[in-house]
Amino acid sequence: MTKKSILTFTTAIAASALLAACGGGQGGSRDQVRAVGSSTVYPFAKAVADSLAKSNPGFKSPIIEGNGTGAGMKLFCKGVGAEHPDIENASRRMKKSEFEDCVKNGVDKIVEIQVGLDGVAFAEARGGLSLKLTPEDVYKALAANPYGKPNTTKTWKDVNPAFPAEPILVYGPPSTSGTRDALKELILMMGCNSNAEMKALKDSDKEKHETICGGVRSDGAYVDSGENDNLIVQKLEANPKAVGIFGFSYLEENADKLVGLPMNGVMPTYAAISDFSYPGARPLYIYVKAAHLDAIKGLREFVAEWAKSWGKDGLLAKQGMVVAPDDVQAKSAKIASEFSLLNGADLK
Questions:
Q1: Which domains does the chain have, with CATH numbers?
Q2: Distance separating alpha carbons of residues 228 and 173, to the nearest angstrom
Q3: Which end of the chain is more exposed for a tag (fewer CB within 10 A), N or C?
Q4: Secondary structure letter of residue 263 according to DSSP
Q5: Distances (CA, A) of 122 to 45, 94, 204, 261, 317
């Protein structure tokens, strides 16, 4: 930790103590852990937080905010000190640019822990269109400029002659969401790169390739539904001809109302995500600010509670999280106990 970081953190802790003495607002005293980030990770983090408070009456239940992976990263990376979050919940891995932003702001000691798996699930209400999707279909339906040309598709039949002539209406995550990033990286890019010209463009003009392959249309066919995935569930119930995109846990939680749509012939199921045969499978992470470990009451214990909860018979599996493979669990448990630091060299 740099001298500047130490000074900033010490000043912030002193300021928070003064706020507490003066009756400052929530989080002023920072006698409880604060986590920000992914709406997908939110219900799992909340369950772990409640478990910590129940088993350790001396600790307040951590504050969990579901403001999206991207938005959470910005908050997390703003600095060290009581006014900044201790943990970032993420439904995709930290980007190199985010790590560099953290370091620039004195957040130069970060612990990365993979806590489980999830999938970018496509779903509809029971009695819906029963689309059998491929990444190429999704790309043609949702890209702003598929293969470099304006998107003129209006119905699913325009995308694929085998599909019904029903208007394209997809409710999905906002640009600040890790689920949106995963949609881009795991599905849209794959669909785009099925075109030889686009695949070649990746080598010749990476920035142009990123724009063409990752941009999502904004003409109403794709509806940004915010960070509240339960809202998407409600919208699908109200309109059986719409498609929704969210984390697998929300599909599983609402299995009585919704059905998953296959991707490349593979259904979004626990088993298919666990073995990565489902194209939208992705790891989930928490990022911990090492500078806060001894300054924020309960932070070490909260991380330990995560480690106790992510096993096959653990709390998180009961909450619908897909359990990570044994070797990943072992690696994560070691990091959670030793708080070994993330080396940003292999981030993208």
A1: 3-116+283-346 (3.40.190.10), 119-281 (3.40.190.10)
A2: 9
A3: C
A4: B
A5: 23, 24, 32, 5, 21
Q: What is the DSSP-derived secondary structure letter of residue 143?
A: B
12-21 residue pLDDT tens: 444 344 323 3
Spatial neighbors of 139 by CB under 8 A, at least 6 apart, are 146, 187, 188, 190, 191, 192, 194, 213
- Give Cα 254 distance to the centre of its chain: 19
Predicted structure pTM score? 0.83
Residue 149, pLDDT above cutoff 50: yes
Whole-angstrom distance, CA of residue 342 vs CA of residue 102? 12
Overall average pLDDT of the 275-280 stretch: 95
Alpha carbons 185 and 91: distance in angstroms, whole number:
12
Mean pLDDT of 222-249: 91
E-only strand ranges, 157-204: 170-172
Digit-coded pLDDT (tens) for 312-328? 999 999 888 999 999 99
Instruction: Give dist(CA 74, CA 69) in Å, integer.
Output: 9
| Number of Cα atoms under 13 Å in the Cβ half of residue 168 | 26
Task: Tell me if residue 258 falls in helix, strand or coil.
Answer: strand
CB 214 within 8 A of CB 189: yes
The DSSP bridge partners found for residue 123 are 244, 260
Q: Given the structure tokens 């030889």, which residue do they identify? A: 196
Q: At what angle do helices 206-214 and 196-204 cross, to 10 degrees?
A: 140
CB 29 within 8 A of CB 20: yes
CA–CA dist 116, 90 (Å, integer): 11
Q: How far apart are CA 153 and CA 143, in angstroms?
A: 10
Instruction: Determine contact, residues 96/344, Cβ cutoff 8 Å.
Output: yes
Q: Give the C-alpha separation, 212 to 181, whole Å.
A: 15
